[in-house]
Amino acid sequence: MADSIWRQRRREELIKAEMARIGCASADPNKLVGLAFSGGGIRSASFALGVAQALEKNELLERLHYLSTVSGGGYTGSAITWLRHTHSKQAEADVRAAAQRDNPPDGSRDSTAFAGLLERFADYLRSRGNYLDPTQRLNVLSLLGIVLRTMLVNATVYLGAVVVVLALARWAVGALFGDAQVLFDALLVLAVGVAVVLVLAAWYFALGTGRIGTGGGSAETARYRLRTWFQVWFGRLLGLAGGLALVGVLPWAEAAVAEWLEPGLVGAVGSVIGAIQGFAQFRNAQAGKAGEKLTSGLTLWLSVGAGLYGLLLLADWLAQMLLGAGDTGMVVWGALALLVGVLAVRANVNMVTPHRMYRDRLMEAFMPSPEDMTGKRSRLAEAANQAPLAAMCADKPPLHLVNTNLILVDSADTLYRGRGGDNFVLSPALCGGDAIGWATAADFAGSGPEGLTLATAMAVSGAAVNAHCGGAGQGPMRNALVSMLMTLFGLQLGYWVSRRGCTAATPNFVLAAKTSLVGRGFDERADFLQLSDGGHFENLALYELVRRRVRTMIVVDGGADPDFQFADLGNALERVFADFGASITFSGDGLDEVVPTKGDTYPATLGLARKGWVLGSVTYADGFRCDLYYVKATLRPDLPEAIYAYKAANSEFPHQSTADQFFDEAQLEAYRRLGFELAGDLSDQLAATL
């Protein structure tokens, strides 16, 4: 394992390298400006696009030093980076002339060159909000087909491997002892033996506690270490005994399942399930939220555990089928073993999961080839498909910081393990974070088309569905059994990278994916690292701006927050205070100004806030202070009637569920126009101060 590309860097080193990348080497590190786009899928992308257009109305995007994005905000952030990369000065001049000829009175089109490019892109995107179902050829059935293909490949590798091993074990034991049942009897005996060891150890430990020692010092230290050793090995032996017992009772479990197929017993099982559900609901009502969380967690473990054990039963049944098929079964067994081995070694797990489909559809919607932006037909984004991340932002500010989450659920560092990971930046200058250090984009991401592309970075930052992850490090996907089930079926959008660089080695089932299956090896020293949605760490993309002490921060929050609980903001406040000693406060009435209240007359009956943004301050322990402009997706007075009309017809707007990734034209335009209107006066204020 080569770690030469990674090293820790101080804030000053980061800023120096990053400013040199975008041609701003002379920039004052204490007067930097940054824009952050939050997560939230196509909803936050649409809202962020409107904000970007409002800022560019005053040519503010080129005054930015940093563009920090996460998840859905990265869709629009990547579009901005891509547009600045692909369009020449002459193309911008042509757009400027065209915009001056066609400037509608609503002001959403502007005469500046890049504003015209953004308007062309907005026109292009309006009919592509359903990016996962873009054409008659690439539709929902295509998506379903990719998911089924993924499940087939993963089932072949994982379930096939278990079938091969069980068939081999049954055949070998049967050949030696005449009956394969001896294998399962032996496993049960071993389980009982381990259980006996546990009982004896428990008695021995209990007897030892009766000795009152007065030695202190080294004697007490020795007892403490022995006690800790007992605690560790009690857990390991208990897991071993349980695993041996579960495999050992396979024949009895299979027989029981066969009996349960009788109609009467099916009804009995249904009654038991109903009774359990009723009891759970009763306990939830009695215990409140804490009891509900405990019961749902227990139900989750039991249901997923039963599903996994069902797969084990299926594997053993298939193994018996192979052994019972005579010579034909042996040929199939050998072919299956060969297929499993070849797939496990040769298949690139990044290519066989839904990640690649997700990445390609995002790329086609948000990173079109320049000549395709005026067309109405969907085309392949061949230029973006080969555009390395390391080639972006060359002498063209702002520097794009794509925020992802480095999964570290098995880290020795309790902070990383508790959070589930660490913020990991992908940028054209430097990649990395606190956990493993920083490397140049050329060293880590690669500088050729075979390396990490901007499109891939965008998709990784939005990989919300992934094992061992969850929003702000929490949620059911952190559950070990849920993660195992997701891994078995390949239901992951995360991205595996070699620690030595993205092009150094291919992540396969043997070297990389096995880590996700067992949940072991997700640490800073691993040969392969898995990156997931940056929202699994922090969903406002604020974290890296605070690290760099950016003097003026503009944070665009398009996350789903229908009750205005500001959960993403709260998580960000906690993280930046814990890691950088930075406290964030808001002036005036604070966040109350963006919280809607209902009035008696239309459109106040829809619920309107006083403003669309509030001013806050970031104060560090040494007294250094930064301005923070927080833009929130909310409705306020004096918006266009079209926005109020959309709200009246869609009560959840502007906080419709992130699960909806199939926006139609009206929906996308409503969010885009809302962002444009809310940020309009902010753009004017910033133009006068920056």
Automatic annotation (TrEMBL):
Gene Ontology molecular function: phospholipase A2 activity
One annotated Gene Ontology cellular component of this protein: cytosol
Domain of life, source organism: Bacteria
Keywords: Membrane, Transmembrane, Transmembrane helix
Regions that span the bilayer: 146-171, 183-206, 233-253, 265-282, 294-318, 330-349
GO biological process: glycerophospholipid catabolic process
Keyword Transmembrane helix in record: yes
Designated name of the protein: Uncharacterized protein
Taxonomy of the source species: Bacteria, Pseudomonadati, Pseudomonadota, Alphaproteobacteria, Rhodospirillales
